[in-house]
Specification:
The complex is a heterodimer. Chain A has a single domain, classed as MetI-like fold (Orthogonal Bundle). Chain A has 16 helices and no strands. The relative contact order of chain A is 0.13. The longest helix of chain B is centred in the N-terminal third of the chain and has 32 residues. By secondary structure, chain B is mainly α. Chain B has twelve helices and no strands. Chain B has a single domain, classed as MetI-like (MetI-like fold, Orthogonal Bundle), CATH 1.10.3720.10. In chain B, helix 4 packs across helix 7 and helix 8 packs across helix 9. Classes of the chains: A mainly alpha, B mainly alpha. At the A-B interface, helix 2, helix 5, helix 6, helix 7 and helix 9 of A face helix 1, helix 3, helix 4, helix 5 and helix 6 of B.
Chain lengths: 304, 284
């Protein structure tokens, strides 16, 4: 009886010793990794927590040293004050309009162009593709001054709503990106061409094939492009800083920066504004976390 | 037919992406000021000025210091967190979400929190310093420390991105290989260094290149936190470029700086791919 027990007890430990030479059993009832992950997570979350805590403090509480880790008086009035001091609703609306329009334009235009480069033969295809790809290598700072001049010209001569000072100026230059064209072209090329050929034989037009066959097969790629474009558009700062000059047309990051320069060191007010600025995107991100994470990982895997 | 499909996107990309490449090169030989219609041609004067401008040299120096700290820092933090998170544990979804969430926050929100955390008088970081007996710091008010505060805030801001890339790569590491190494008697550290790390090298190369490109273009955090100060200690290349173009209206000179930046990015990327190829291990 006891001999059997011993043998049973000895067998796995012998195997374990073979696999991992010198490891003593961990004495605690949870994995040691928690001891690493908990402090790391606290550091990662703390800035968010501190925004929240400061945003409901009174100014005298915020300007105290050593700081109070828990506010005694909850002052939600900071949010009302921030909303009175700057039109955060307007910023939010502008950001949403710009981001959503940019995403829709990118999906439509990049899909059409990506499909053309993936499947069509036309005069100048190679040259046009190389030209588009060249822009991928060039940092935005190189092109931003002419982009500013072109946008200004468009606003004066073509379409006021797309000129400097209007949110159209944030949409039009980003309505299609070289990355989007390249990314979708690569994806379309992995699709089996037989479906498309069969539909063509049955008399479907190129556009019908794209809309009815190719795009439905491409939803993962389209979702990735949408998520990345949305993040980029929402967080863009340098171009809005240059292109927008009135508070009415400001996006969230730009509005927050101008709010900060007007209220430097009024920390509870600033953090209330910051909280309102980051909550919408944080919620969208957390709700669609799977998509965002997969999309970011996809760029990494594509790059490697 | 192909043209009709490609045209709308091509027009936008060429007009706002390709044409400006040539245009800004042309601008760099002029004394454009963004306002008056005439742009007098000045030849190579902007480039000659660039070479002799001590502020350009400083800006390049700050950018290099920043990049040299930010890129390895972010990669190490990302690798460490990803290794810790690459296992089945209770609450793992929470740990991962906390890391990913840093991706959702804009550079401006991030900088605004961090200048408050690192506020010299009332910031919580100085409070923590006082608890552990470290001297109080001036942080972003100090010319010698401000750049490091920006390094810390941007590492935090990019940590989620690095974690996602490394976690995806770690999940591609076949279990058979690490188990085989363990059976052959390799300890955990040896297995990690000799098996896992080489298998992660494509992800590491991607991150190094991607983070470097972004580090050389640092602007948002500087604009919000220090405005290039104190005493110009955080004036990085893009911030200087922005000041020249949109505060001093020296668009011609700014274009020359932009081309210098472009050159630096190209060279840095080429070097990384060159060096990286030697250390990068591709399966298949």
């Amino acid at each position: 009886m006891s001999g059997v027990d011993l043998a049973e007890a000895a067998a796995p430990s012998a195997a374990a010793r073979l696999v991992r030479p010198k490891r003593r059993p961990w004495p605690l009832p949870f994995s040691p990794w928690h001891l690493v992950l908990i402090p790391a997570t606290i550091i990662l979350i703390f800035p968010f927590v501190w925004v929240l805590v400061t945003s409901i403090e009174t100014s005298s509480e915020a300007l105290r040293f050593p700081p109070d880790l828990t506010p005694h008086v909850l002052r939600f009035g900071n949010y009302a004050d921030a909303l009175r001091a700057a039109p955060f609703g307007r910023f939010f609306w502008n950001s949403a309009v710009v981001a959503v329009t940019t995403v829709v334009c990118n999906l439509a235009l990049c899909a059409a162009a990506g499909y053309a480069f993936a499947r069509f033969r036309f005069f100048g295809r190679g040259l046009l593709f190389v030209l588009i790809m060249t822009t991928l290598m060039v940092p935005f700072q190189v092109t931003m001054i002419p982009q500013f001049l072109i946008t200004k010209w468009i606003g004066v001569h073509l379409l006021a709503g797309a000129g400097i000072g209007h949110i159209g100026a944030l949409i039009v230059p980003n309505a299609a990106t070289a990355f989007g064209v390249f990314f979708l072209r690569q994806f379309f090329r992995t699709l089996p061409i037989e479906y498309e050929e069969a539909a063509r034989v049955d008399g479907a037009s190129r556009l019908t094939v794209l809309l009815r066959i190719v795009l439905p097969l491409s939803t993962p790629a389209l979702a990735t492009l949408a998520a990345l474009t949305f993040l980029d558009s929402w967080n863009n700062f340098l171009w809005p800083l240059i292109a927008i000059n009135s508070q009415n047309a400001m996006t969230v990051p730009l509005g927050l920066a101008s709010f900060q320069s007007a209220h430097a060191t009024e920390w509870p007010l600033l953090m209330a504004g910051n909280m309102m600025s980051l909550i919408p995107m944080l919620l969208v991100f957390l709700l669609a976390q799977r998509y965002f994470v997969r999309s970011v990982a996809a760029t990494g895997l594509a790059g490697t | 037919m192909g043209w009709a499909f490609a045209m709308p996107a091509a027009v936008i990309i060429l007009l706002f992406g390709a044409v400006p490449i040539v245009w800004s090169l042309a601008l760099s030989f002029t004394r454009d000021n963004l306002l008056s219609p005439s742009t007098p041609f000045v030849g190579l004067r902007n480039y000659r000025q660039l070479v002799h401008d001590p502020l350009v040299a400083h800006a390049i120096g700050h950018t290099i210091v920043y990049t040299a700290l930010f890129v390895p820092g972010t990669m190490l933090v990302g690798l460490f967190l990803a290794v810790a998170m690459n296992r089945q544990l209770r609450f793992m979804w929470f740990y991962r979400t906390a890391a990913y969430a840093t991706m959702a926050i804009s550079t401006i929100s991030e900088a605004l929190v961090f200048i408050w955390l690192f506020d010299p008088s009332y910031g919580i970081v100085n409070y923590v310093f006082s608890l552990v007996g470290l001297p109080q710091q001036q942080f972003i008010n100090s010319p010698s420390e401000a750049l490091f505060v920006i390094v810390v805030m941007t590492i935090w801001g990019w940590a989620g991105f690095a974690v996602v890339i490394y976690l995806a790569a770690l999940q591609g590491v076949p279990k058979e290989l690490t188990e085989a190494a363990a059976i052959d008697g390799a300890g955990r550290w040896t297995t990690f260094r000799r098996v896992t790390l080489p298998l992660l090298s494509p992800a590491s190369l991607f991150l190094a290149v991607w983070l470097t490109i972004n580090a050389l273009q640092l602007f948002d955090e500087v604009y919000l936190s220090t405005q290039g100060g104190p005493l110009g200690a955080t004036t990085v290349v893009v911030y200087y470029l922005y000041q020249q173009a949109f505060e001093n209206f020296n668009a011609g000179y700014a274009s020359a700086i932009a081309y210098l930046l472009f050159l630096v990015i190209l060279v840095a990327t080429a070097i990384q791919f060159r060096v990286g190829r030697r250390f990068t291990f591709y399966r298949s």
